[in-house]
Amino acid sequence: MHASGYCCTIVTSRGAVHWLLLVDTYLGALPGFRINAGRGLPAAEVYFEVGSTFALSRPDANLLAIHQAILLRLLGPTPPVSWSDIGTTMPHHEYTLPHLISNPPKPPSLMFLSLPSLIESLNLRTLLASAQAICNATRLPSAYVDYPNLSTSLHGRIIATPEISWSLYVFLGVDHTQTSLSHLARGNQSTTYTDYYASNYDIQLHNVDLPLVAVIRLEDLGDHQLPVPGSWDPSNNKVRFLPPELCLVLPEEFDLARIQTLRLLPDVVKHICDIQSTVHALTGKYPNCGRIGGERYFAITVGLRLDQGRGHGLAGWRTPFGPLNVSHTDIFQRLELLGDAVLGFIVTARLLCLFPNASIGTLVELKMELVRNETLNHLTRMLGLPQLAEISNQLLASSKTWADMYEEIVGSIFTGPNGINGCEEFLARTFIGPEHASVATCTCPDLISKALEHICAGDAKADEVRDIVDYACEQSVSVFCSSHLSAMFLERLKAVPTEELADWYHVGIQASHSSGTECPTSVVDVIVYLARGLWLGSPGFYVMNQSNDKLPTLPMVPVLYAYHRSVQHPAIYGSLTSDPKGPVASKVLSLFEKFLAYNPSSSNNEAAAKAITTSLAIPIPTGTIPFLVRLLQLALTPQVYQKLELLGDAFLKCSLALHLHTRHPTLTEGALTRMRQSAESNHVLGVLTKKLPSPVLEVITDAHPGIQPDSKVYGDTFESILAAVLLACGEEAASSFVRKLVLPRVTVDT
Question: Which cofactor does it need (predicted)?
Fold first, then answer.
């Protein structure tokens, strides 16, 4: 470690401001000092919080140095002037740091990082790769010195030029009337930029954007030759150049069209930095002092590139700070482990919704097809993430690296405030993403064209929908990123009764209307919208928008948890307890009609199910007990519970991964894996099953005469019971079930 620091409070005439103070190690603890008034900074008393220390590595120290250089240029060149209590005067050149820092700050330098409060997250806004950046404050006129007013003063555009290795710069003052840039000095040579590309939208900078410069790691820029700020054409003096240390050097094969892809990323990974249990800058009294909230911070910024190699991916770019004594590689691998479990659960749940009549073997085959590395690599490339990375010749696109990155994203979103719902939204936008990114042109028969017009108008008949499905199957339309999965999906469509197809397509109509395109919808688009709707809301799951009755709106709730929400909000979701009416209520019962159609002949199953319900020490939503009892009966019925067991196994892995990730923030991926496996083994689950009420064991014994004590049936029964709790009572109740029964069985890895 090259530097240590303390948390302090600066009390000014504007009130208390909290800062993170970086002090070189040899200075030790300082009792306090006074800062004389400087330009942009009032006089202040500084008080240290004794014992609240942190340590920074060389790259992180460089980050703070860059951050401090920018802040002091904005606030003025001389604050603070003196440190009276330590008896030393520091010339201002100690703070005018060079734009490239090869070594950490040398003593006796002091640097600050502003914090909004000691209990809130850093208030940093999102910095888009194609929308915002930091300005060269030294070129600002005096009217811009007032730091809080910068948000109304600075505008510009993103500029990319091939004349400097496709470097990406930010030019302030450039508007839509300018078509070329000129007279940028690069070293001792004058270069005229006539070949450049500008973003379509102006940049508006806010004062809270400025600290984002701290996320730029200079070492990631490597040995690339960077231009230096020079003199511009006097006739174009309003153009200001972003300091080169804040520029992104793009790989030679960079596809400029991919910049537009980045516009989707804030919606996709807005929670990527909200890693609750691992991102801390300080310990002790102020554990939240250095946490950066995922809602207000975005990992993809100008100046960052993705690392190559296993465990170094998108999720790592969240903050210059990390947990003490935990390497970034361990953090990446932990998120990958969590994301893998979450991905497996959501895919299992979605497949049960898409293919309720499929066999267990078919469902497992579909799941393996979806989560294989090649599929996840494809999804990562669809997001355009590899375009931001410098890929070596040895790193193949089909390697496990990009699959790991996708799982890291899923794990990061899962730790955010939206949890499983955020992950489902992410998968809805990426997992079923088609290979056709734009409206495809195809020549359709007149019959199909008319049917498509009726589809887009929302008044298609069932036979017209059938004609479209048959035509799509004949043309082998690609819906999923896997051709094999697309074929299976189309076969599934062919098996749907004609009278039910119209409901399937209603889900896709909303996406068609909201796309904003005036092009006629093709067969590809209809199938694509259908697939996206099915993933997010399942077949026919929609409710009418109150403001516009013509457009259906997807319910923002996973279908598997619709039952207990229907009890809580019957006006919206309908009632399943008495009369199953309403778009969601009727479809829930239809979705599980094969399950619910079973009526076990033995009354023992019902008695055992009621005994389990009575013994559950978990929060059960009011009104869900009748449905829970029915599902528990299925969980205890041989030859029926396999699908429940498949879902319960996936949820158990997901829930255990989250609990262990939260409780043990410093353990490695390997240790967490061993701990999870210790609790999800058939032996442990069998022991838990045998501790259930005696009627449960009687039902199992009657159904399997001569069953051995270590039989796998006991473990499978526990997982099917867990799935029944999940379906009837929701994720919170199922997580509580795992936490109280399974988690204590974990063997702590030492």
Answer: Mn(2+); Mg(2+)
Question: Bigger pLDDT: 307 or 386?
Answer: 386
Dist. CA 252–CA 150, nearest whole Å = 35
311's torsion region: left (phi>0), alpha (psi -120 to 50) or beta? left
Three-state DSSP string of 367-434 = HHHHHCHHHHHHHHHHCCHHHHECCCCCCCCCCCHHHHHHHHHHHHHHCCCCHHHHHHHHHHHHCCCC
CATH of 446-556, one of 3.40.1190.20, 3.40.47.40, 1.10.1740.150, 1.10.3720.10: 1.10.1740.150
Angle between helices 328-354 and 669-679 (to 10 degrees): 40
Torsion sign (Cα): 553, 555, 556, 560:
negative
What is the DSSP code (8-state) at residue 108? Answer: T
- Give the 3-state secondary structure of 257-279: HHHHHHHHHHHHCCCCCCCCCCC
Computed from CA positions of residues 344, 348, 349, 350, in that sequence, does the dihedral angle turn out positive or negative?
Answer: positive
Compute the distance between CA of residue 712 and CA of residue 725 in angstroms, rounded to an integer: 20
Domains 446-556 and 592-745 belong to one CATH topology: no
Highest CATH level, class, for 592-745: mainly alpha
Residue 575 DSSP code = B
Phi, psi of 678 (to 5 degrees): -65, -25
State how far the alpha carbon of 190 is from the alpha carbons of 160, 183, 259, 583, in Å.
Answer: 18, 6, 28, 68
pLDDT digits (tens, 9 = 90+) for 198-220: 444 444 444 333 333 222 222 23
Amino acid at 744: P
Question: pLDDT tens digits for 113-127?
Answer: 333 332 222 222 222
Tens-place pLDDT, residues 353-396: 667 667 788 888 888 888 888 778 777 766 655 543 333 223 44
* Rounded mean pLDDT, 617-625: 75
The predicted model scores a pTM of: 0.55
Closest CA to 133 of 98, 191, 174: 174
Q: Where are the alpha helices (DSSP H) in 636-707?
A: 642-663, 669-679, 682-690, 694-703
Identify which of 296, 246, 299 has the alpha carbon closest to the alpha carbon of residue 272.
299
* CA distance linking residue 624 with residue 619, whole number of Å: 11
* Res. 329: pLDDT tops 80: no
The runs of H, that is alpha helices, within 269-327 are: none
DSSP state of 581: B
Segments making up each domain of the chain, as ranges: 3-115, 137-250, 294-430, 446-556, 592-745
User: Rounded to whole angstroms, how far apart are CA atoms 431 and 485?
Assistant: 12
Contact 266, 254 (CB under 8 A): no
CA–CA separation, 631 and 210 (whole Å)? 55
Contact by Cβ (8 Å): 332, 411? no
Task: Please tell me the distance from the alpha carbon of residue 575 to that of residue 623, in angstroms, as a whole number.
Answer: 10
Contact yes or no for 101/218 (Cβ under 8 A): yes
* Residue of 557 and 442 predicted with greater confidence: 442
